């Protein structure tokens, strides 16, 4: 079922695969008359085999002017985002995963800013929400990764992105972006692959001129979902997916300035983003049983990174990696032990 919606300021894309346990929480968060007037919710049913499609259809039938379903073959999270970019009709674009949800009052603030500011990107806050199986979401413990995007931020002010790029780190949960930027520049995310959020937040950056900030935590990011891909066991199992994303990011970075026009400040911002992904890769490598072979594999990875992408290598902010490098990897075994202990 596909239907184009007009006069919506925001398209929210909900990539959905076997999410029947969580999807109703996600969709119900939009069911307020004033929100529905401004928001198109595109549920991208990614070949679900459970009751996700039935749940989505309930909302389409109740609110046909705001909810829409697109059913496709399974292609992973990136495929859902790509489908959303192609079909979105709102001026702005936001991704909200099916097991997460939005907070209505904060979303209202975001919508107001989208109408007033006309920034390329609007940044809003998100909370880590720790799901320990309680039936009432109000009992979930919540934590802000960052209480504000940077010290001294002025909310609802239109900034030149380059002016504040050195102060900023933006995740998918923070980002609302003009749909035209994604579509005009053919932003395409790897499909059939985990960990593609970083591609989504990185590839549009060369084309972003302005950014504004909304004071409020719009996005509720659920931690503790069974099978969540950010758990260390899952990251070990899916290390090849992580490597694929990292290589895609390196390929993109190599095109900057030559094939993709990019200011020096945006390039440095992108280097910092990729350095965080590198740190994740090293965390995965350290989480395996410590052996001479694994140590050598890590040293080769680090050598290649330093030789090919020295600026990314030098943007590391991870303390454990800094200690590894300073010790010339003599601290490999104790740090590997500490990583495994932390995530066990």
From TrEMBL:
The keyword Transferase applies. Keywords: Glycosyltransferase, Transferase. One of its GO terms (molecular function) is glycosyltransferase activity. Its EC number is 2.4.-.-. This is Glycosyltransferase family 2 protein. Residues 11-141 form the Glycosyltransferase 2-like domain. Pfam families: Glycos_transf_2.
């Amino acid at each position: 079922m596909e239907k184009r919606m007009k006069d919506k300021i925001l398209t929210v894309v909900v990539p959905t695969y076997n999410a029947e346990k969580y999807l109703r929480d996600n969709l119900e968060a939009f069911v307020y008359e004033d929100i529905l007037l401004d928001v198109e919710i595109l549920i991208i049913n990614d070949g679900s085999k459970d009751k996700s499609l039935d749940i989505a259809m309930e909302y389409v039938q109740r609110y046909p002017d705001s909810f829409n379903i697109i059913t496709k073959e399974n292609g992973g999270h990136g495929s859902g985002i790509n489908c959303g970019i192609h079909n979105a009709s709102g001026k702005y674009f936001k991704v909200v995963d099916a097991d997460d949800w939005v907070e209505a009052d904060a979303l209202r603030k975001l919508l107001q800013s989208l109408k007033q500011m006309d920034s390329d990107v609007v940044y809003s806050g998100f909370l880590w929400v720790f799901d320990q199986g309680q039936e009432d979401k109000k009992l979930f413990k919540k934590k802000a990764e960052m209480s504000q995007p940077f010290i001294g931020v002025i909310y609802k002010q239109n900034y030149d992105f380059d002016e504040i790029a050195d102060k900023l780190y933006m995740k998918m949960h923070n980002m609302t972006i003009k749909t035209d930027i994604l579509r005009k520049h053919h932003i395409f995310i790897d499909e059939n692959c985990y960990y593609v959020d970083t591609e989504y937040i990185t590839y549009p950056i060369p084309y972003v001129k302005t950014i504004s900030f909304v004071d409020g935590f719009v996005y509720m990011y659920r931690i503790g979902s069974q099978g969540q891909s950010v758990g260390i066991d899952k990251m070990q199992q899916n290390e090849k997916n992580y490597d694929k994303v990292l290589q895609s990011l390196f390929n993109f970075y190599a095109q900057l300035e030559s094939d993709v026009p990019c200011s020096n400040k945006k390039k440095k911002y992108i280097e910092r983003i990729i350095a965080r992904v590198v740190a994740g890769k090293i965390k995965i490598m350290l989480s395996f049983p410590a052996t001479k072979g694994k140590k050598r594999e890590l040293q080769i990875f680090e050598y290649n990174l330093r030789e090919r992408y020295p600026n990314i290598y030098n943007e590391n902010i991870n303390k454990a990696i800094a200690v590894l490098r300073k010790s010339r990897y003599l601290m490999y075994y104790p740090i590997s032990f500490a990583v495994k202990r932390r995530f066990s």
